[in-house]
Each structure stands twice: as C-alpha cells, then as structure tokens.
Amino acid sequence: MSGSDLEAGRAAAVRRIVSDLHAELVRNRLVAWTAGNVSGRIPGADLFVIKPSGVSYDELTPETMVVCDLDGNLVEGEHRPSSDTAAHAYVYRAMPEVGGVVHTHSTYASAWAARGEAIPCVLTAMADEFGGEIPVGPFALIGDDSIGQGIVATLSGHRSPAVLMRSHGVFTIGADPRAAVKAAVMCEDVARTVHVARQLGEPLPIAPDDVDRLYDRYQNVYGQRSPR
Ligand SMILES: [Zn+2]
Fold first, then answer.
1. 169 CA to centre of ligand 1 in angstroms
2. From the CA of 69, how far away is ligand 1's center (Å)?
3. How far apart are the CA of 10 and the centre of ligand 1, in A?
4. Quick check: 80 and 107 in contact, CB under 8 A?
5. Is 222 a known active-site residue?
6. b (16+ CB within 10 A) / e for 117-149
7. Which of 46, 71, 144, 222 is catalytic?
8. Cα–Cα distances in Å, from 53 out to 22, 46, 107, 149?
9. Percent of the chain's residues with pLDDT above 90
10. pTM
11. Which end of the chain is more exposed for a tag (fewer CB within 10 A), N or C?
C-alpha cells in the first residue's frame, strides 16, 4: 500500500467515525435542527474531518463529511464546511494532543453559559470527568479566530475537556472524536443535575483533595483497558 493509499484509508476511517458520532449528538438530545458539530483529526496529516454546513442530521453520511486543512480551508468535499470550522481548526493548530472537537448548544450547559457561570464541581462524576469545575470562556463572535482563541486560552492548563463559551454554548476536546463527544454528553448531564440541585438549595462543594483523588483514579485506573 502506498503512502497516499494509507492516508486515503485513514481519511475514510475518520469520515465514518465523525459521521457516526453526529448520531450520538441527536440520540443524547444535545442539538436542535442543524446546530452542533463534531470533527476529528486525520492521524498523520495536517487535516481534519468536520460536518458540512447546514445539512440535516438525517442526511449525514461519511461521503457528505468534508476535509479541511488546519487553517480551516476546504480540501475535499462537495459541501461547505461547518460555520464553526475556524474554531475547530484553531484548536487543532494550538493543541497538537487534541484529536477531536465537539460543539453544541445543549440546553442546560448553554443556560449556564448564558449566565456566564462556571459549573461548580459538586458531583463525583464531575471530578472524574472534568477534574473540577467546567469553566466559562469569553464572549466571542463567529467569523474570525476569536472563538478558537477563547477555547484554547480557557482549556490550556485546565483539566476540563469542556468550556462554556459565554452567551453561546459548549466546546469540548478529546484525544479522539469519541472522547470529545463523551465530554459533551457528560457536560450536559452534570449541567442539568447541578441546575436541579440549585433549585433545591446550595449544592455542597467537594474538597479539592477528594476532587484530585477522584480525577486521578478515573483517568488512570477506571476503564484503562478500553478507549475512553
Ligand atoms: Zn454555536
């Protein structure tokens, strides 16, 4: 198999993975209409696969996915890339360890974003997955690198794979696209639970030492033998 065949094979595999993962956004009720998107880096290439702009979730297939370079330029595909492509591209450029990015306007998490409030770490599941609070990123308009810059500035050096972009919605990152989708699902789940807890009173904080222990155990022991 030649190098270009190998690259084409990898691109086809990522197209399928990214296409299939969009169904998880729908199944987990994280998206309305055509909002929301998943992308995945193509291993060994400065390219990523992302959802086409404005195509219904029912019509997404591996073939309708588009391939972009790390500047967000369309490289391969019949549709325009998602309008959030510049933000995904910025993250891939700035964070080489990131292999997948997800964006949603999921209801409860976006409600926290609308108030510009970080979700406090008051559940062991949050300590496990996020290692602390889910932080808020800056208000940023679509159209240039400002959303990407806000995501990277907020998540760099932070344990959380999720950021609530103020007055907007959620961006999550992962070692691969599936991990980023998992973070988006978990982010919405804890946003909902902590919101409900707030209606009943003041949620109890978890001691920072316990947050550290939970995070370390979950990240290093739990599920070690299967990809997260
Ligand atoms: Zn958005």
1. 6
2. 21
3. 28
4. no
5. yes
6. ebbbbbbeebbbbbbbbbbbbbebeeeebbbbb
7. 222
8. 13, 21, 21, 22
9. 90
10. 0.95
11. N
Contact at 8 Å (CB) between 129 and 183?
Answer: yes
26: its two tokens:
């729908």
Assess contact for 136 and 160: CB atoms under 8 A: no
Specify whether the CB–CB gap between 82 and 64 falls below 8 A: no
Q: Which of 20, 128, 145, 212 is catalytic?
A: 128
Residues with Cβ within 8 Å of residue 83, at least 6 apart in sequence: 53, 142
pLDDT band at 222 (very low <50, low <70, confident <90, very high): confident
| Whether 45 contacts 6, CB under 8 Å | no
Distance 224 CA to ligand 1 centre (A): 33
Active site residue 144: no
Q: What is the tens place of the pLDDT at every residue in 76-86?
A: 999 999 999 99
pLDDT in tens, 6-32: 888 999 999 999 999 999 999 999 999
* Strand, coil or helix: 68: strand
**CB contact set of 175 (below 8 Å; sequence gap of 6+):** 97, 98, 99, 100, 228
Distance CA 109, CA 7 (A): 37
Dist CA 205 CA 203 (whole Å): 6
